[in-house]
# Entry
Amino acid sequence: MLTTESRLRDFPTLSTRSYFNTAAEGIPPLTVLQALHQYGEDKLLGMAGRAPHEAEWEKARQELALAYGLSAEEVSFCSCSSEAFNLAALALHLKEGDEVVINDLDFPAGATPWLQESCPATVKVWKSRDYALHSEDLQELLTPRTRLVTTSLVSFFNGFKIDLPAVSEIVHTHSDALLALDVTQALGRIPLDLSDVDLIISSTHKWILASHGGGLVGVPSHRAKEWTVPAGGWFNLQNAFDADRFERTVTKQGAASFSVGMPNYPAIYAIRAGLEYIRQHSVEKIDAYCQPLVEACLKELQQLDVEMLTPHEPGSRAGILAFRHPDTERIYQKLLAEDIHVMHHAGRLRIAIHGYNTEQDVNRLLACLHAAIK
# Structure
């Protein structure tokens, strides 16, 4: 996807190392660092810097709207995906007898707000089988009391990708529940059709190659009322500085209600630059380039003496492969010694393949794994 020259120019730190840990931390192109520098230049202007800050906010909204398939009015920003899910919990006004469905392949940010003692709803767990979530198992959990089904499109744990059209149809056909989707491990890596999703959330420091400190929120206009956050603040209020501001609050509806205070402008600059970089290179082209690398890597991993955690079925994968081995710590250290970077956590190794990875990277990884495991 990138030429040798453009890869070295955009990602100079990848000139000697093979990096497969994008699912935890993406490597930003230099344009993102330049955007952060521009933030600093604008901040040096003091109050006069607010104008370029606000202009960057609008550009970032436009980029996010394109990525989510929504309008600029249907997207906004908060500080991280965890904050977004906690604000979503406020918006739902859950009461005793309500039900929320989470799953056991999900990241804590999307699952734990509903497990707090302060949440009156009953939580049901959509349990995986053979490291995959099956739609028919979800259907059995839905009742007239189900208010929310929340899931990641791609699991951080093993890279399993849900069948989103099937899940959406089941949720909206067999219940009146809302469907919240975390696209953190998909945005910037695979093409997305989010037209039947009621709430979209993503973090910013992974596949879109931006910085920490951002949460990307999308609320379709027809769901704005359901997803209006009753939080104090000012950026999220229509009457924050009106004469009646100490008598009542009028909250902006939908996505705008998730931006409760002063925007994290450094992150906004980086988000704009990261999303713009991904768009210019095309998610479709990134996916088409990466998928053969993913499949080749999976094929070789299946020949090794490891426990694969990523399902084999076509269509159930994006950019992540994960496996276990009794001696993962030693294998991980062998990889690090060769300047090959994967994720090691809780006894598993996780490989994440993005557009800046090369066939040579994958071959180095596999050769080292073969040697270490044998």
